[in-house]
Design a protein that fits this description.
single chain, alpha/beta, Purple Acid Phosphatase, chain A, domain 2, 6-stranded mixed sheet, 11 helices, 32% helix, globular, binds 2-acetamido-2-deoxy-beta-D-glucopyranose, zinc, metal ion binding, metal-binding
């Protein structure tokens, strides 16, 4: 992690600039939304947050606030204007803009209401600190136990003959059920190579049989072929699978589809790798619908993530012990012992993500996940156990406070954390951690694996690694 990037403003891709214009005798707000990112869903969420706040000011005047959203007529108006904005800003084609607005609308407006954003906070968000205090993503600190950090032992290569394990690392499968060979590989939608991407003309490329270098995900045959190949290159001692099962058709996803894709891919992996290979999954940001929508466990009822986490617990039960399933159902994270001397922690990185609009309600250590991680790491340190951490979004891409706290934890437990494995970026990378005092001594590394999907313009990837596990 480049520490400098963490110091950037929390609203990295969002800057809302508002001007007041005296029009006759009333004040009218003019909103300029700048979303500094090219990624479609990020721009959309940015537009939603900035746009709803601005529109609310515009519709309701600057004194009255989000309780007016409860009025369904206003909700309707806001949704309509946001869909129009999406179309006019050319974020996507009209039908995509309209469908995604419908899909996000209820949850985003609910979260905005619950975020208790008052006029002064909205003003601070829009205009800056001169007119109010805005601390939705206020800084926070986890508490470390009083146990002093053990002396640092410089790393050394394992002795010859140390036990070795072969670990397979899969991430970002993104299976597209509607992938259609021969359809247009270039289109205006966030996802192409489908029958409704339009017909390829002499100028436009066609979707291939196995996949395409374009904005396309994969047909099931390619996923299956990859799994067959992977099974043949075994034996594997275990597998890390760091999420993102569904395709990028984020404007048209239903809970039923997401769950059916989760089930199909889980069973396919189980079938190809066999019952003797344990797979340890982590939850990606695309598992939910609307995409990135992961309410913390304090949200109950039909809006909660219970529909998703409960099905995951059912499907992953052959791989995970009961205690792990319990925390999976609660917050989508878990820990278990892989073998004596080695523990795994699977984090739900959606609780660190800028794009998870539920964090507008409360971004302080959602689900108490990092405080829980500290407890797990302390217990492992006490036992002399090593720990691997897996998750979907790499920690360097999280909200500032979450990233800083995670960095701090990695510093404290550098002697215990033996490996970190993430996905999400679709490319083969790593992020470095340095000592906090001097920022010169590298002390940990997070490996980021390439995606299985070709989205965007990639070859399918997987990683196999030889883990030397030194049991102390
Ligand atoms: C968090 O800890 C840092 C470093 O010790 C300190 O500077 C900061 O004020 C703390 N922040 C909060 C919100 O407690
Ligand atoms: C796409 O259209 C073709 C031709 O009409 C049809 O055979 C195919 O089943 C369709 N594919 C999907 C995924 O709907
Ligand atoms: C958009 O929504 C309409 C109505 O709900 C639906 O008929 C249509 O299939 C959706 N379009 C896409 C591209 O998903
Ligand atoms: C799984 O392991 C058991 C016990 O070691 C063995 O009998 C069985 O053949 C293995 N199954 C497969 C599919 O490898
Ligand atoms: C729960 O929410 C989903 C998605 O918003 C919706 O389709 C479903 O109808 C809701 N169920 C109930 C019982 O309200
Ligand atoms: C936010 O969540 C944290 C931890 O989950 C909790 O301690 C805190 O009280 C919450 N803050 C508010 C304003 O609800």
């Amino acid at each position: 992690i480049d520490l400098r990037t963490l110091r950037k403003p929390l609203f990295k891709y969002t800057s809302c600039v508002a001007h007041t214009h005296p029009v006759s005798q009333t004040s009218c707000w003019k909103l300029k939304v700048q979303c500094h990112t090219r990624a479609f869903t990020k721009r959309l969420v940015c537009l939603w947050i900035c746009g709803s706040v601005g529109l609310c000011l515009w519709i309701c005047g600057s004194n009255v606030f989000f309780n007016h959203f409860q009025d369904s007529v206003n909700e309707e108006r806001v949704a309509h204007v946001l869909a129009e904005a999406c179309i006019r800003m050319h974020l996507a084609e009209e039908r995509v803009c309209r469908n995604i607005t419908e899909l996000f609308r209820d949850d985003v407006i609910w979260a905005l209401q619950k975020s208790l954003l008052w006029p002064s906070e909205a003003c601070a968000l829009l205009v800056g600190p001169s007119c109010g205090k805005f601390d939705l993503y206020a800084p926070w600190n986890i508490t470390l136990p009083k146990v002093p950090k053990p002396p640092v032992i410089p790393p050394s290569a394992p002795a010859a003959g140390s036990p070795q394990n072969r670990v397979l690392f899969l991430t970002d499968i993104h299976w597209d059920q509607e992938y259609a060979e021969g359809s247009a590989a270039d289109c205006k939608d966030p996802l192409c190579c489908r029958n409704d991407s339009g017909t390829p003309s002499w100028r436009r490329r066609e979707a291939g049989y196995w996949g395409t270098y374009s904005k396309c995900d994969l047909p099931l045959r390619t996923v299956e072929h990859l799994l067959q190949h992977v099974a043949k290159s075994g034996p594997w001692d275990w597998v890390y699978w760091t999420g993102d099962i569904p395709a990028h058709n984020v404007w048209a996803q239903t809970r039923a589809q997401q769950l059916s894709e989760l089930t199909v891919i889980t069973r396919l992996i189980h079938k190809h790798l066999g019952p003797n290979v344990t797979v340890y999954p982590a939850i990606g940001n695309h598992e939910s619908t609307p995409v990135n929508s992961f309410p913390p466990p304090s949200e109950h009822g039909n809006r909660s993530s219970a529909w998703l986490y409960n099905t995951m617990a059912e499907e992953w039960a052959p791989w995970l012990p009961e205690q792990a399933l319990k925390t999976l159902r609660y917050g989508g994270f878990y820990t278990l012992q892989i073998q004596p001397g080695l523990r795994l922690v699977s984090l739900n990185m959606n609780y660190c993500a800028r794009e998870n609009f539920w964090l507008m309600v409360n971004s302080t250590d959602p689900a108490n996940q990092l405080q829980w991680l500290v407890q797990v790491l302390q217990a492992s340190e006490d036992k002399g156990e090593k720990v691997h951490i897996i998750g979907h979004i790499p920690p360097g891409l999280c909200l500032g406070s979450w990233s800083w706290n995670y960095y701090h934890i990695v510093n404290r437990y550098e002697g215990t954390i033996a490996g970190q494995f993430f996905g999400h970026t679709h490319t083969d990378e790593f992020q470095m951690f340095y000592d906090e005092e001097t920022l010169t001594r590298p002390l940990s590394v997070a490996f980021v694996a390439p995606s299985v999907t070709t989205y965007v313009n990639l070859n399918p990837g997987k990683k196999g690694s030889l883990e030397e596990v030194t049991v102390c």
